[in-house]
From TrEMBL:
Domain BTB residues, every copy: 34-108
Classification via PROSITE patterns: BTB
Source organism of this protein record: Mycena chlorophos
Region span, Disordered: 1-20
InterPro entries reported in the protein's UniProt record: BTB/POZ_dom, SKP1/BTB/POZ_sf
Name of this protein: BTB domain-containing protein
Amino acid sequence: MESNAPPAKRPRTDDGPNAAELPEVITRSEIWHTDGTVVLQAQRTQFRVHWGLLTMHSSVFKDIYTLPQPNVAGVAVEGCPVVEVHDDSGDWKHLLEVLYDGTILTEETLQFSLVAALIRLGRKYDFIKLLKAAVNRLTHDYPSTLALIDARQRADFSLNITPYPGIHFDVLSMAREHSILSVLPVAYYWMMRAYPQTSWFDGMKRPDGTFCPLGAG
């Protein structure tokens, strides 16, 4: 369960310089290890985790750990330094869950949101093993050779990513953004086969009601 950490303060900017300060509500994630040594903050969500685990898997966090930490009052939470990351908090929740439970990557199928999070954060922060595992899932389901494409269309083929209406749009956007070029031809092909032509440029709704456009490019 999530709980609210003590709110940080931020000044109001809409009612002039004399307006009272409003608290910025910070949510404490369920990923909160009481023996953790660093607090990551993504958007308004904090995660208490272990420096050792981050530095073991990410060269970027290994470099951050070696930097001298400024002694600024108010930036520690329960004695832990706070490192603010400018990413989606849901992405960090996915990645940290995998870091603390590697068996997740052995599951037959994973949600695309998890795979996408590992690609985004894996590339940005150099989580090499997680990035490779996620890309392998993507290229398995969106192969680049005719033989593998034929195998993909057999009834006994096991998908690595749970399908949903609109997934080809999301795969195309992800692949183009992160230059995973090998999946593009078959992803475009399956998009044109699976979805009506009117949706090719307009996109379509996911099962949760959010919209997945193809995007520019």
